[in-house]
Amino acid sequence: MASLQCSSHFLGTNPKKHNPSSIFRSYSRTSFTKLSYHVSHQRFLLCSLSMNGCEADHKASLGTVQTRTLSTVMSPADATERLITAVSDIKFQPPPFSSGIVRLQVPIEEQIGAIDWLHAQNELLPRSFFSRRSDTGRQDLLQDFATENGNGSSDRNPLSVAGIGSAVFFRDLDPFSHDDWRSIRRFLSSKSPLIRAYGGLRFDPHGKIAVEWEHFGSFYFTVPQVEFDEFGGSSMLAATVAWDDELSWTLEKAIEALQETMLQVSSGIVKLRRESLGVSVLSKNHVPSQVAYYPAVNNALEIIKAKNSPLSKVVLARSSRIITGTDIDPIAWLARLQCEGQDAYQFCLQPPGAPAFIGNTPERLFHRKHLGVCSEALAATRPRGDSRAHDMEIERDLLTSPKDDLEFSIVRENIREKLKSICDRVVVKPHKSVRKLARIQHLYSQLAGQLRREDDEFDILTALHPTPAVCGCPVEEARLLIKQIESFDRGMYAGPVGFFGGGESEFSVGIRSALVEKGLGALIYAGTGIVSGSNPSLEWKELELKISQFTKSLEHESALQTIN
């Protein structure tokens, strides 16, 4: 296993049971506390003082997995004080286990935006954010399959979750394996449903990792040290401590690291303005360029149309580098995207010292609740109309287009077959419909089934990713062609992004996404499905349409600055 222990040397290979605090041995506890408390630019190094759960024995049960709920308070400041006291109590009355994870949570009467809380925190700490999609108005097929008498708690599901720090992380250069999944599952329990590992996987786990994606490894998941959960009508602040003596990460060390992070928690939360980012786009560069993209599409079409070719679809992506006059605040940008993304997932993943991977994706990979699992087919794209009549005209064109029906049918039937391999029965409903988003509309269908056992969760992930919607069909042939044609690293773009939980897990597909790098602007990603009948010019226009939710916000602000 190629270990990734901390940002300062994670590309090296560390032995099993590596002591993650060894790089700080030259500091006494007092001097380290002064250093970490007063020198804010070195705060991110505290994340090195955590453990990589992938290095543990995944077969060994954790000593304890528990959640302790404290009394409800009025404000985040009160919740922070209560958690600081509760963490100190654990230090003086430690659980009698050599390994474990304990979540302390304090309900807050007021509903506060998780993204607003995250924006108020130290940006040098690793950050995570996941906001669930609103499915209002759509039938939830999962309800028909989810086990009613599961062992999970009746805790409500958060609307959005924001986290800082890392109680335990999971990261490696090697592709995500069943053993890695079991390493994560060690720290989860249906009796503690809000202990979750948030993260994602690369689109191509076997591809060479580009420098901008190095900190993410082949996969990256984290259980935040401090977490803010937003519910409908209320909120919750939580602190999590995790330890494993086998990894030389004792409860004492874990508590000290958590206390350091708690000292930085800000309760001065201001609701983010959704109107202005205050940046202007200086330049935009596409890879591939439009000149190179047309031949690539024609090349793919020749292969698809070739006699006896198994390939029926391939998704070709584009990376667009934008340079801005000032640094882009990834959390503010995500909040801006939220305005038009109620029907989409929002996410942010930022390991220590890394760029921020953010997204506003409409596409679900899967949602598992006990034995029930659902996925969806989402393919073919059209813009929204400028009037209701025009919008309906575009919808009819989308529904009756042979080319779009072919592209969509490939995706839907592929997902149906994959679910059949792990489920007793599969339902598809509706067979084909139109899903309307703020700027675009797609063909859409929902699929659901009942797993044979909950341990099939790893099989769900490996069976469904990558879907034909982001790769092609057959998958392996499409993946090979993508590797030949594309000259950039997709990283986690089009990969699974979401969370693993004890009784419930949910993953989106990391499309409509961007990698925000301090001092370097951002890389915005988009792709289009190439099938027989595709037109290079129209596919390029579709790429522009798909990234418009990112570029329009920035370009619009540039125009406003000029007017003022």
TrEMBL record:
Domain Chorismate-utilising enzyme C-terminal, first and last residues per copy: 292-546
Primary location group: plastid
Cellular location(s): Plastid, Chloroplast
Catalytic activity: chorismate = isochorismate
Pathway in which this enzyme or protein is active: Siderophore biosynthesis; salicylate biosynthesis
SUPFAM superfamilies given in the database record: ADC synthase (SSF56322)
GO cellular component: chloroplast
Organism placement in taxonomy: Eukaryota, Viridiplantae, Streptophyta, Embryophyta, Tracheophyta
An example Gene Ontology biological process: defense response
EC annotation from Swiss-Prot or TrEMBL: 5.4.4.2
Similarity comment: Belongs to the isochorismate synthase family.
Protein name as catalogued: isochorismate synthase
Function: Isochorismate synthase involved in the synthesis of salicylic acid (SA) required for both local and systemic acquired resistance (LAR and SAR) while SA synthesized through the phenylalanine ammonium lyase (PAL) pathway seems to potentiate plant cell death. Also involved in phylloquinone (vitamin K1) synthesis. Has no isochorismate pyruvate lyase (IPL) activity.
